[in-house]
Amino acid sequence: MPINANDVEWVEEPAMNFWESTFLPAIFGGLQITGSHITDGKTVTHQYPEEKPVLPQHYRGVHRLNKDEAGRVKCVACMMCATACPAHCIYITAAEAPKNEPLWNGRDKFPMSFVLDELKCIYCGMCEEACPCDAIELTHIYDLTGASREEMLFNKEKLLSVYDQTKDNPVDPVRTGRGRLSGCSEFVSLPTVGPATQVKPEDRAAKSATPGVIH
Amino acid sequence: MEWLQNPLVMAGVAIAVALGGILTTCAYLILLERKLSAWMQDRLGPNRVGPAGLLQPLADGAKLILKEDVIPGHVNKFLFILGPALSVFTTMLAFAVVPFGPVSHEPGQFPFVIAPGIDLGIVFIFAVTSLSVYSIILGGWASNNKYSALGSLRASAQVVSYEIPLGMSVVGIALLHSSMSLEKILLQQAEMGFLGWNIWYQPVACLIFFTAALAESNRLPFDLTECEQELVGGFHTEYSAMKWAMFFLGEYTHVITISFLTSVLFLGGWHFPFIAEANSAYAGAWAVKVAVLLFKVSCMIVLIQMLRWTIPRFRFDQLMSLAWKGLIPMATANVLIVMCVLEFQLPRLWLLPLSLLLFVAVGLIGTQASLPAGATTVRRKKTAVPAVAAAHH
Q: How far apart are CA A55 and CA B56, in angstroms?
């Protein structure tokens, strides 16, 4: 559709006055600005490997598999996370818990193998939300590297070792995905979780017990 | 020490000093440029290699030398290699007549200029540096790539245009000093003292010279030959490794040369009141003179680099109109003023107010010319719009 000529507004270039047409005030003004930035000594650079970034509470990094009080994997192999996962990156083989072993007392199922492909994962946190027993959680570890694709397939042992590595980190408390602490948490109260974006007061998230977390 | 009397020996030493100095300075100018641009943008700049990043140029150099030097299959191989070679060759050659200290013609003394006693110094420099545009034209054309070709076409148009004001701006100085030799111009300024600096008599010429020289060296805001947004990399799109680096070696050498020229022609060279006068004969006076000259040159270089990160690039038609409608008439009028002052034997100090008057006149003419016809009285009314819009369809 052609543009109606009446809708077109022609804007004239503003006429330059004497000083503007010499370009000198603009050049000196610009030099003053750049010069002041050179001499003010301020920088916004983070010296990364030495200076770690401060990540928000809800940051979603590498996964971990939590352990219960007895040191067993909390996962009951219910497949909720694998079902919820939009990237299909969780592979679980469930097995019946050995009946005659006192360690597995009170448990029916456990994951014989639990493999999570960290390369396929999109770090959406839906596994964490879907988990009924707070077994899988996302930590604040962000600098994950590997030399091969096989190395990035995290198995049960590796995911449990991430738990050992992060459980004492104050930014990674054992928590629920729903704003309440689970039974196995060593924390009495949840650390305040900041919202990812500014939450408007009329928003549902602003009225929750823990601001920023939707119940 | 008979062999020291041989002028060839001293020329060789001067070449070694100048070449070594230029190459090192070029490497560190790149570091300085990166640091300056970083500070302007509130960043830190390279700071990992060596203390405060001071070894970064070495790392860059090693990288550029060890990198694979790709010659694409579709290029004209001979011209492709000739381009960067010519770039370094011509800019280095131009430095031959630039004095970098108190010039001495005594046999057996360090001459502080590679080729002492050349009376056509300025003409030589202009002749040789304008050859450096061939490196860009050859490089762009031999690359057999439309963007490179466009870049080199722009370069040729730009350099041809800016050659004129560059040459014209120095005619006034040549007339005032009745010499084309850089050494003589420098010495005459030094003998006249602080008020002998040419900037007091030729401020407009200094401005024109600096602007045109900046354009000649293809530095921002005049780097239309390689503007990334429009031409990928312009003439050096197809170049890699050391051949690419040689273009930039040429560019930075050009920057050093024009900084030296501005200091020598307009800012009194090594002269500075009290500490470096023409008759200073205390021990180590030569070192102070060299230091003063290098200080002036460094200030010019920093100014050039700051300008690069301060002013946006010109549009091509603005670039052309600046040269042909602004600088060339202004330079011509400036030469005319100098001729009149010399012909009627007025005191030299008349040149300062006359130059400023010229600048004001050109500014006023520019202001009036930039207004559309009739715009001073009537702004275009909105009812007139459909007719105009229809004319555009």
A: 32
Scanning chain A, the segments in alpha helix (DSSP H) are 18-22, 24-40, 80-84, 126-130, 156-166
Those residues whose C-beta lies under 8 Å from the C-beta of residue B281, and which sit 6 or more positions away, are: none
The sheet with strand A109-117 has its strands ordered as A90-96, A109-117, A153-154
Helix (H, G, I), strand (E, B) or coil at A153: strand
**pLDDT > 60? residue B392:** no
User: pLDDT, tens digit, for every residue of A113-164?
Assistant: 999 999 999 998 888 888 877 888 888 888 888 899 998 999 999 898 888 8
Domains annotated on chain A, with CATH = 63-183 (3.30.70.3270)
Q: Give per-residue pLDDT as tens, B150-173.
A: 888 888 888 888 888 988 888 888
Higher pLDDT, B102 or A204: B102
Among residues B342, B329, B138, the alpha carbon closest in space to that of B225 is found at B138
CA A1 to chain centre: 46
Which of residues 6 through 65 in chain A touch B, CB cutoff 8 A? 6, 8-10, 12, 15-19, 21-22, 26-27, 30-31, 33-35, 37-38, 42-45, 47
pLDDT at B60: 87
Counting one residue from chain A and one from chain B, the pairs whose CB atoms sit within 8 A come to 72
Buried b / exposed e over B141-162, threshold 16 CB at 10 Å, is bbbbbebbbbbbbbbbbbbebb
pLDDT for A188 equals 62
What residue in A sits closest to B307 (Cα-Cα)? A31
Q: Is the ipTM of this complex over 0.90?
A: no
- CB–CB of B96/B255 below 8 Å? no
Structure pTM? 0.75
B370 and A38 in contact by Cβ < 8 A?
A: no
